C-alpha cells in the first residue's frame, strides 16, 4: 500500500526556471510575482494563489507573494514581476528565475508568543526584524507584529533590544569629527516643520548636522516630503557625504540609505493602521539617530489635546524612556516639550509647509512667528548641547543667525549641494472653509485637520493640504475663512470637502458675548 | 491668494468610467483592480498604488485594492479585475465601471480603541463586522483586528455581541420541524473526522441534521475538505434544502451559503497567523450553528499536550463559556471532552481521512477503532440530547446503527443527494518516514504532524497528507515506518521531507529496555 521512492529526493530535482518579465505593476514596496496557474512550476511545486514564494536570480533571492493568472497576460514560460520585485532582484527581461515555496518563517512562532503576552529577547527580535527586512513577512504578519506591540506595549528591555536590532540590520554612517548633532520632532502636530530651519542655523554656526528625515507616517507631511519640494532629498550615501563635507549639514530622506530598513516597512503598516506605539516610536527614532552616527540629539515633544502626545504626564514618561534608552547606547539626548494645541505656521502639506519654512528663513514680515520661535528654541538647545554655547544663550544666538541672513544663505547652499533649489508647486484647486457663526476660536482639532489635508491628497500630492487663516483665540466673523483646502485634482478636493461638511467640529467657535 | 470654486463640487462631477476587463488573476478572496497610472481616473482622483478604491457597476459596489500599471497590460480606458473582484461585481467584459477613492472606514477608529484595550459594544462590533463583510478592511486591518482579539481576549459581553453580529450579517436558515441537531469539533486534532459518520448515524435514526462544515483553518483538512473527496459539498441553499428534506441530513460546506461571511474572511487571516483566539472561536462556532438553524448541539473538545486545547482546565473554561454564550441565544449545548493526545484514525489530509470514514461506515475489519468509538460517543450524545433516547443508552444505539449497515446506506444516500458519490484520489508520490531506533512510541507531536501534512500539500492538494502507521504506546522496530507522507507533486513531497528531516522529534521513541 505504501511506496518508497527509489532515492531521497533533493530540492534541485525539478527545473523551476522561468523567464523574468517586467509587468510595470506598482504596488508600493510589495514584491509580487504573476505566474500561470498551469505553468510547470506551479504544477510541480503545488503553488496556489497567494502562496509566499522564493524567487531567485543568479545573485539575488527575494520572497514574494504569488498571484496566479489563467489568461495570457503572462506566458507559460514567464514569471511577471511587480516593480518592487523587479528592482530587488536586479534583473532584465528574459533572465532566468527559479521559483519555489518560500521557507517556513521560523520567527512567526516568536511573534505569536508575543501576541499572547510573552516578552521578546534580543535573539527573538533579531530573527523577527531580519525576516521583516528580508521581505518574509506578509501584510498580515507585519500588522500582527505592529498590533501586538501596541496592545501590550514594549517594555524597557524590549525597546532597547528593538532599537539595537533595528540599527544593526541597516547601514550605519560615520562622519569626520566626534560631535554630530541631530534633532527629531515626535509628530502629531500639523505644520511643525522646524527641521530645515534648525539645520540651517546650526550648520551656519559650524556644527555638523547630517539630517536624515522620514516621510509622513500618519501625518499629511514628513520633513522629507516638505523638503523634497525645495530640493532633491533622495540622495545616496556618497552624495550625502559630499553635501555634509561641504556644508556641515543636509536635509535628506533617510530611507534611501537604508539606515533602518525595518522601520521603513513597519511605518507603512503603522500608517495604514494609524497606530504609533511608544516602544516602536522610541526604537524608530533612536535606531535612526544611532545609525546616522549622531552623538547629541534634541527631541521635540509637542503636547496637546489632539497632538500625538496628549498630556504632560505622557510626555514626561516618554521623555524619560527616550533618555534611558538613548543612554544605553551612549547617545546624549535633551527633550524639549512644546505647545501642541494647534498647528504650527500656516501650511499643512509638503509644499505649503515648505513655503512657511522659506518665509522664516528669508525673515519675511509675514513669516509665521510660532514656527520661528520653535525653530530658535530647538536650534538653541542644540547649540548648547553641542558644547560651545553657554546655557541659556542658545535661543537668542539662534535668532541672531536667522536675523542676519546666515541661516538663509546656509540653507540655499545646502539645497544647491543636494542637487539644486526648487520652487514649491501651487495647487490647481483651492477652496475655503468658511466661518458659519462669528465668535472666538476655542479649539482646533489637529487630527481632523490632518485628515482633511490627507484627503486633499497630502503627502502624495505635494501641493495639496490646508492653509490656515486663523489661530486659537482669534476673533472670527461669519463668512471669513477658517482655512483654505488645496488639492491637485478636483476629485481629491471634493473628497476633502465632503469630509469637512461631515465634520463641522474641526474648528470650535464660542458664541460672541 | 485663495480662490473659491464657483459652485459646491459634487462627487459626480467627473466621469470616472472605465471598461471592465477580466484579467484572470487569482488572489483568493482579495478584490484587486489594475489601472494605468496615467489613465484619466487615476489622474483626476489622485489615486496611487495600493489605494483602497470603490468600484461600482450598475448594481454592485465593491471595495478593492488598486495596483497601478505602467505597461499596456491594461489599456488607458480599462480597469482590469482580479477573479474575486470580477465575481463580486457580476460584470461582463466591456461593462462600464466607475472607480473612486473608497470612503473612509469609520469603524477603524473602534478597532484602534480595541487594540488599546477598550472593550467593544454591540454597535462597534456591528460596524466593524459589517465593514469586514463589505470588503472594506485590507489585510493589514483584518490582521490587526484578529491580533487585538488574541492579545486581549474577548470578554463575555464581547463574545455574545460578536456571535450575534456575525450571524446577523449572514444568511439564516430555517427548517421544517423544531428540533435541529448539530455537532462541532474544536479542531487541533489531525484526522478527527467524525462528522460524516455522526450525520449518517443520527439521520438514519430520523433526527434532522443539516450539517454545514468549514474548510481547514490551521489544520491539514476541514470536514468540508475531506467530504469533498466523497461528494460535492459546494451546494446552494435550495440544493441543501432538497437534500435535507429527502435524507434528514447533509454534510456541506457552510461558506457557500454565507451563513457567517465575516468568519470566512477572518478564518483566512487566522490561518495565515496560525492564531485561534477563544472568543473568536466561540463566536465562529456558535454564529454558524445559530445561522444554520440548529437547536441542539454537541461539541467535541479534544484535549492533549499538542492539541488546540492543551489542558483539562482550559477545556473546562471553554466548555463553560460555550454553554453560557449558547444559552444567551436559546441554544442547547452539550460539551464532550475527548482524548487529544494523538491523531485519530490513520489518515491526515482530505482524501486520506475520507478513506478512514468509509472504512468505519462500511464496518471493515481494519477500520480505525478510535475513530469509530469517537463517532459513536458523539452520535450517542446527540441521540440523547435530541430527546427520544434514554440517557446512557445513546452510545450503544449509535454502534448498532453502524453495525447493521443503516448508517452506511444513509451516508450513500446523502452523497447521492448532494450530487453523487466520489472515490477519493490517491497521491502520486508516497514516501515513508522510518524509525531510526527501536523502542516504544511515547509522544506524538500533533502540531508538527499537521505541519508535515500541510507542507505535503494538504488541504489544497486533496490526496496529500500523512498516513499513520503507528499509535502511542506501540513498540516499533528500526526501519519500520512511523508514517507515510503522501503528495501530489514531487516539489511538495520534497518540501515535506525536508521539514521531517529537520524535525526528528515528531515521534518520540523511548529506548528498548
**Rg of chain A (C-alpha, Å):** 25 Å
User: Biggest sheet of chain A, open or closed, and with what strands and sense?
Assistant: 6 strands, mixed, barrel
Q: How far from one another are the termini of chain A?
A: 93 Å
**General shape of chain A:** globular
Biggest contact: A-B, 88 and 88 residues
How confident overall, as mean pLDDT of chain A?
90
> Which band does the percent of strand residues of chain A land in?
15-25%
The oligomeric state of the chains shown is: homodimer
Query: What share of the residues of chain A lie within helices?
Result: 25-40%
Question: Which class best fits the helix and strand makeup of chain A?
Answer: alpha/beta
What's the number of helices of chain A?
A: 18
- Low-pLDDT parts of chain A are 1-14
The beta-strand count of chain A equals 18
In spatial order, strands of the major sheet of chain A run 1-5-2-4-3-6
